[in-house]
Amino acid sequence: MSATEVMTGDGPGAVDRAGAVVAFTDVNKSFGAVRAVADLSLTLHPGETVALLGPNGAGKSTALDLMLGLRNADTGTVRLFGTTPAQAIAAGRVGAMLQSGGLMEEVTVKELVSLACDLHPKAYRVEDVLKGADIADIADRKVNKLSGGQEQRVRFALATAGANDLIVLDEPTVGMDVSARQAFWATMRGQVDEGRTVLFATHYLEEADAIADRVLVLHRGRLIADGTAAEIKARAGARRITFDLDGTVDEPALRALPSVVGLDVTGPTVRIRSDDADATMHSVYAAGLYPRNLEVSGLGLEQAFLAITDAASAEEAENR
Amino acid sequence: MKTLVRLEIVRTLRNRKFMFFSVLYPGLLFLIITAGADKTKKIDGLDLTLVAYYMVAMSAFGAMTAVLMGNAERIAREREKGWVRQLRLTALPGRGYVTAKIASAATVSLPSILIVLILGATVKDVRLDAWQWVAILAATWAGSMVFAALGVAIGYVATADVARPISMLFYFVLAMLGGLWVPITTFPHWLRTLADYLPGRPYASLGQSIEFGNAPHARDVVVLICYLLLFTGTAAWLYRKDTQKA
């Protein structure tokens, strides 16, 4: 079974699209010969926190642009709350923070946030938005004199100026240091707790792991995985087994053990990537081996992500 | 939307360098062009001094420069920086954006017109009735909005690099055919007919009719209103439709 077949279960989304927050149906978008988004179908449900992952050039930004109506699909349909993106935005149901979104210059942070509140049909009070984005202390500063992390917070304030049902964030924590990132996600959790649907694209996989209850992986414009972080890790062959062996290590024998996905031997140290650690270890003992310093650990989402995107690339190369 | 209009005006006022040049440039040009002119010399066949003619022409020309050039380039730059993308994620309608941009342009054009008129009255001894001064100011100011809208539209079509040359081109053609540099009476007949239906000439003649003591011609007003609707409509449409990453 190829990775693509395994991973692209449409989940519950395929069944019930009526109450969908976001619904992509067979969406394609090309720029010249490059297919930025290919046959993309996905459904987001109310209250979900969804991470959108993918290597650079995977089509994340294009997918978000299509979702927000900043670009039009070549074929297929994009619906937000059952309407067009433009209608959903005009109704004040969507807040978005774009990586490419510039800010108005020569005005103060507070003036800019007041503008966002003024334009939002279901706006919050300016003071509350400033506080919510943790920028009350820089409210009087000029927008063009902010650090990268502060700018991101201002963008976040613009995206949360009113009672949106969907919040879309493109790489929201780029340019923030670790503590700022943690503070940011604490703020974001507040939004999630209020029942918002949140979709964020990120490069920091630990963020996806910690925050998202659903992870989408895009690769060359295609959706190659859709599930919880745990599911994706499991499907990628997600246990790492490490132990030492006395005497010479019989590599072919180890490779033949059940559930082994990857093997790496350095001197006496054996590293196995397995999709069923119990079965693998059982047969290690059954083979009469006596492993020392045994460690079994879960793969991080990062390794899982690399494993499935590599697999997708390899498959693509084979088909070519 | 009120906040957007207010912020656009405020940040234009805060941009001192831009304000300084846009506001003073028409006045300086007026002084330079009329430097050697005899203050009492009248234009051939007209009961109007050359200096008065140039005063009205330069106030119109200057306002046009300020709004056309300033708008086009600033908008193209804003688009490149992604502010317009961010703004498109709000409920702001296209006409709201265009209105705010025209309002900020009008903030620049009003003082630039005023300065030319004040220089005319004080340094160049131009004498007109009180109502004429007020009417010239009002008409020239209102007319400048047509070119502000054109500036918005150009800012939308062009990248920041070419916005300036493109607006220069428009502005030379419109100013030239508008008789803002040389009296239009020197043009061949076919060119004068063409000029009547481009926005430059009707714009200049608003103030000139008032100088002669008449109301502006209805046809000029209609032509200008048509262009205003055309340019604002195009600009608003481009704002909503713009799918370039830029």
Automatic annotation (TrEMBL), chain A:
<protein>
    <submittedName>
        <fullName>ABC-2 type transport system ATP-binding protein</fullName>
    </submittedName>
</protein>
<feature type="domain" description="ABC transporter">
    <location>
        <begin position="22"/>
        <end position="245"/>
    </location>
</feature>
<dbReference type="InterPro" id="IPR003593">
    <property type="entry name" value="AAA+_ATPase"/>
</dbReference>
<keyword id="KW-0067">ATP-binding</keyword>
<dbReference type="GO" id="GO:0005524">
    <property type="term" value="F:ATP binding"/>
</dbReference>
<dbReference type="Pfam" id="PF00005">
    <property type="entry name" value="ABC_tran"/>
</dbReference>
<keyword id="KW-0547">Nucleotide-binding</keyword>
<dbReference type="InterPro" id="IPR050763">
    <property type="entry name" value="ABC_transporter_ATP-binding"/>
</dbReference>
<dbReference type="GO" id="GO:0016887">
    <property type="term" value="F:ATP hydrolysis activity"/>
</dbReference>
<dbReference type="InterPro" id="IPR027417">
    <property type="entry name" value="P-loop_NTPase"/>
</dbReference>
<dbReference type="GO" id="GO:0005886">
    <property type="term" value="C:plasma membrane"/>
</dbReference>
<dbReference type="InterPro" id="IPR003439">
    <property type="entry name" value="ABC_transporter-like_ATP-bd"/>
</dbReference>
<dbReference type="GO" id="GO:0046677">
    <property type="term" value="P:response to antibiotic"/>
</dbReference>
<keyword id="KW-0813">Transport</keyword>
<keyword id="KW-0046">Antibiotic resistance</keyword>
UniProtKB/TrEMBL annotation, chain B:
<keyword id="KW-1133">Transmembrane helix</keyword>
<keyword id="KW-0812">Transmembrane</keyword>
<dbReference type="GO" id="GO:0043190">
    <property type="term" value="C:ATP-binding cassette (ABC) transporter complex"/>
</dbReference>
<feature type="transmembrane region" description="Helical">
    <location>
        <begin position="169"/>
        <end position="191"/>
    </location>
</feature>
<dbReference type="InterPro" id="IPR000412">
    <property type="entry name" value="ABC_2_transport"/>
</dbReference>
<feature type="transmembrane region" description="Helical">
    <location>
        <begin position="133"/>
        <end position="157"/>
    </location>
</feature>
<feature type="transmembrane region" description="Helical">
    <location>
        <begin position="49"/>
        <end position="69"/>
    </location>
</feature>
<dbReference type="InterPro" id="IPR051784">
    <property type="entry name" value="Nod_factor_ABC_transporter"/>
</dbReference>
<keyword id="KW-0046">Antibiotic resistance</keyword>
<dbReference type="GO" id="GO:0046677">
    <property type="term" value="P:response to antibiotic"/>
</dbReference>
<feature type="transmembrane region" description="Helical">
    <location>
        <begin position="221"/>
        <end position="239"/>
    </location>
</feature>
<feature type="domain" description="ABC-2 type transporter transmembrane">
    <location>
        <begin position="2"/>
        <end position="212"/>
    </location>
</feature>
<dbReference type="Pfam" id="PF01061">
    <property type="entry name" value="ABC2_membrane"/>
</dbReference>
<dbReference type="InterPro" id="IPR013525">
    <property type="entry name" value="ABC2_TM"/>
</dbReference>
<feature type="transmembrane region" description="Helical">
    <location>
        <begin position="20"/>
        <end position="37"/>
    </location>
</feature>
<feature type="transmembrane region" description="Helical">
    <location>
        <begin position="102"/>
        <end position="121"/>
    </location>
</feature>
<dbReference type="GO" id="GO:0140359">
    <property type="term" value="F:ABC-type transporter activity"/>
</dbReference>
<keyword id="KW-0472">Membrane</keyword>
<protein>
    <submittedName>
        <fullName>ABC-2 type transport system permease protein</fullName>
    </submittedName>
</protein>
